[in-house]
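Exercise 7.
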Amino acid sequence: MLSQFLNSLTPETIYIAVGAILFLESSIIFLFFLPGDSLLFSLGIYVSQDVLDARILIPVLITGAIFGNIIGYMLGAYFGDKWIRRGYTKHIKPEYFKKTEKFFASYGSSAVFFSRFVPIVRTILPFLAGVSHMKKNKFTIFSIIGGVVWVPTVVAVGYFFGNTVDIVNLERFVLLLMAAVVVIVPFGVKFVKKYILK
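Solution. The predicted structure, written as C-alpha cells, is:
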C-alpha cells in the first residue's frame, strides 16, 4: 500500500522517491499505473503532520512532473511511430489510447493542462502529443502551467484533510475522491473551453 511505502522511508528519501515517481508517471507511457493523485494527496497529509516540508516538497514534485511531461513528449516525437509500428505499445489497453486521443481531439492544446487531472490520460497524452508533432513550445507552456497548478492543488487537498483522514485507510478515501474528480473535471473542461478559451 502507498501509505506503507511512504512510512518505510526517511523524510529525506521521500523527497527523492516521490519526485522520481512523478517524473516516471509523467514521462514513460508504460507506467500509467503509478499513483499520481493518491501520492500527492498522501504527501499533503504528511505535510499537515509536519513530517515533510512543503517548501522543499512542492518544487521537487513540480519539477518532476514538468520534466517528465517533456521527456514523454520527446519519446513520442522521436520514437512514437516506431514503437507503435513494432507493437511495443500493444500491452496498453486500446481504450486507454482511444480515451486519450478523444480527450486530445476535443480540447486541443489545452488538453495538456487539463490532462494533469485525469489519471492514465496524463501519462499517455504527452507521448501522443509528441507523435502528432504538436508544437514543442506550446506543449511546454501548457505542461508547465499544468504542473504548477496540479501539484499544489492536490497536495493542498491532502493537507486540509490531514487532520480528519486516517492514513491507514487513505487509499479507500482517495478512490472515492478521484471518482468524484473524474466526474467533475470533464464538465469543468467543457465550461472553460466554451466560455473562456473560445
